[in-house]
Design a protein that fits this description.
- The structure is a single chain.
- This protein is extended.
- The protein has helices spanning about 15-45, 50-55, 60-80, 85-105, 115-135.
- The chain contains five helices and no strands.
- Helix 1 (about 15-45) runs antiparallel to helix 3 and helix 4 (about 85-105) packs antiparallel against helix 5.
- The chain is about 70% helix and about 0% strand.
């Protein structure tokens, strides 16, 4: 007994692709901002784990406040409309901050439980890159 199967072609319209891209952008961007604000809260309040980690990595305690401030400002910059150049700087700052954290943990062999420090910072770097790559045209610098 032979069965004939017909594959139905599926096409995604440009409008649907645009909506999917917009949803993906906002999901990545809001998640990224939440993680940055959460990290800033832990650094401002000098939570035990955060303060201990900075000490292990050899950073001074005042560095917590500095990084927390930049995380809050960067989160605001990527969420508010307009200011495309400021957004570029915010994404760059987040990328440098998180890759620096990844490398610092790697060099100091401070991997955390089950490599959590490396996994989380690499995940945040991926969110930074995804949010930056998916941003709509009105959030980009104009091309020259």
């Amino acid at each position: 007994m032979a069965t004939i199967t017909q594959q139905i072609p599926t096409r995604t319209t440009p409008a649907a692709r645009g909506r999917i891209r917009t949803y993906a952008y906002w999901a990545c961007t809001v998640s990224l901002a939440f993680m940055m604000v959460s990290g800033a809260y832990g650094e401002y309040t000098q939570q035990y784990g955060t303060q201990e980690t900075h000490t292990i990595l050899g950073y001074p305690t005042y560095f917590l406040t500095l990084i927390a401030t930049w995380k809050l400002l960067g989160s605001a910059a990527i969420l508010v409309p307009g200011f495309p150049r400021l957004k570029e700087w915010a994404y760059a700052g987040m990328f440098f901050n998180m890759t620096g954290a990844f490398i610092s943990h790697l060099v100091e062999r401070d991997y955390g439980a089950a490599g959590m420090h490396l996994t989380v910072t690499a995940g945040i770097v991926a969110l930074v890159l995804a949010s930056w790559a998916l941003r709509p045209a009105d959030r980009m610098l104009p091309r020259r």
